[in-house]
Structures are given as C-alpha cells and as structure tokens.
Specification:
The chain is mainly β. The protein is built from no helices and ten strands.
Length: about 120
C-alpha cells in the first residue's frame, strides 16, 4: 500500500496550493480518504474527508471550511486538496490517509508534504 502526497511548498498568506495524494495497493474506490495535518508542537488535525461517493459526501474541519476543497478521481486513484486563502496557521505537514469504515482511526497512512505559509 502506498499513499504518496505531493504539492506542498512555501506560499504567502492568502495564496493557494493544490495537494495531491496518489494511492496504490488497495481498492481506492472502497475507502474514505482523508487529509490530516500536524503542525510543530500541535495535535494532529483531520481537516477534510471524502467518502467513496465523492463530493456529495465531503466534510471539513471548521478551521478550513470555505477555503479548502477535497475531491477524488477514481480513474487516477488520486485525491486532491485545493487550498485557497492560506493562512500562517495552516502551516503543517499534510498527510493523506485511507479508511474503509469511517472512524478517524485510518487503515493506511501516507507520506506527508510540508506546507509553509508566510505572513
């Protein structure tokens, strides 16, 4: 199983980034997909999740609602996190994760990509 995250970088406050997570080794279409972030010295935070049904069943944390959009492409086994209106508080390592039954305990956990938002 592999979950390979990419797309992070250094961006100014107010800017946008698009993260991607390429999945392999499991039945992508049968899993919830998540983006989880962890900032230095802070608790891990699940910022968005999307069900097997796609955009019609997507949830966001209050901290990113209205700014981030999560989508999935089952043909490419990839999830995307479009992040707009970035803030310094969004600075973190962003990980993608997968889970067959939604419970925020994650069956699979991928590599992270660092997002740094400068003020």
């Amino acid at each position: 199983v592999q979950l390979q995250a990419s797309g992070g970088g250094l961006i100014q406050s107010g800017g946008s980034l698009r993260l991607s997570c390429a999945a392999s080794g499991f039945t992508f279409s049968s899993y919830w997909m998540y983006w989880v972030r962890q900032a230095p010295g802070k608790e891990r935070e699940s910022v968005a999740r999307i069900s097997m049904r796609g955009a019609s069943n997507t949830f966001y944390s209050d901290s990113v609602k209205g700014r981030f959009t999560l989508s999935r492409d089952s043909a490419k086994n990839t999830v995307f996190l479009q992040m707009n209106g970035l803030r310094p508080a969004d600075t973190a390592v962003y990980y993608c994760a997968a889970e067959k039954i939604q419970s925020d305990s994650y069956d699979y956990w991928g590599s992270g990509t660092l997002v740094t938002v400068s003020s």
